[in-house]
């Protein structure tokens, strides 16, 4: 009987110590870069504003009615690589970028009087 108790205690101690030695992996969620988005779709219409990538032609944005708010700035350059603030794949240099009154995750580009809605890529 005593031997059974000691055996159970030893097994419990062994199991506890093995579980304590197990490594834990942590994954950090971050927003995708423009290069990562373009790797999935080479023709994506996007731009980087600050550290966030915004993409046009997102299905759910076609149903929205949004109001242009303040001009935030203009596109600085058009490129397919080496993105930073103000770099776009399709929009031309000088295209105005505006905030949206109704939502913080959208921006608007105004091109030849036409409004294009861009949605922010969230952490993924």
What report would you give on this structure?
- Keywords: Signal.
- This is Lipoprotein.
- It is a single chain.
- This protein is α+β, with helices and mostly antiparallel strands.
- It has one domain.
- 22% of the residues lie in helices and 31% in strands.
- The protein has a six-stranded antiparallel beta sheet with strand order 1-2-8-7-6-3, with no helix packed on it. A two-stranded parallel sheet has the order 4-5.
- A hairpin with a 5-residue loop joins strand 6 (96-100) and strand 7 (106-111).
- The radius of gyration is 25 Å and the shape is elongated.
- The mean pLDDT is 86.
Task: Describe the structure using short key phrases.
two-stranded parallel ribbon; six-stranded antiparallel sheet; 124 residues; 2 helices; alpha+beta
């Amino acid at each position: 009987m005593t031997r059974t108790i000691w055996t159970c205690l030893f097994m419990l101690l062994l199991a506890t110590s093995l579980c304590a030695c197990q490594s834990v992996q942590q994954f950090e969620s971050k927003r995708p870069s423009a290069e990562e988005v373009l790797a999935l779709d080479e023709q994506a219409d996007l731009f980087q504003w600050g550290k966030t990538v915004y993409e046009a032609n997102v299905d759910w944005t076609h149903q929205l009615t949004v109001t242009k708010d303040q001009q935030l700035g203009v596109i600085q350059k058009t490129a397919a690589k080496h993105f930073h603030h103000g770099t776009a794949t399709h929009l031309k240099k000088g295209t105005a970028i505006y905030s949206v009154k109704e939502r913080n995750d959208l921006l608007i580009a105004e091109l030849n009087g036409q409004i294009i809605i861009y949605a922010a890529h969230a952490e993924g």
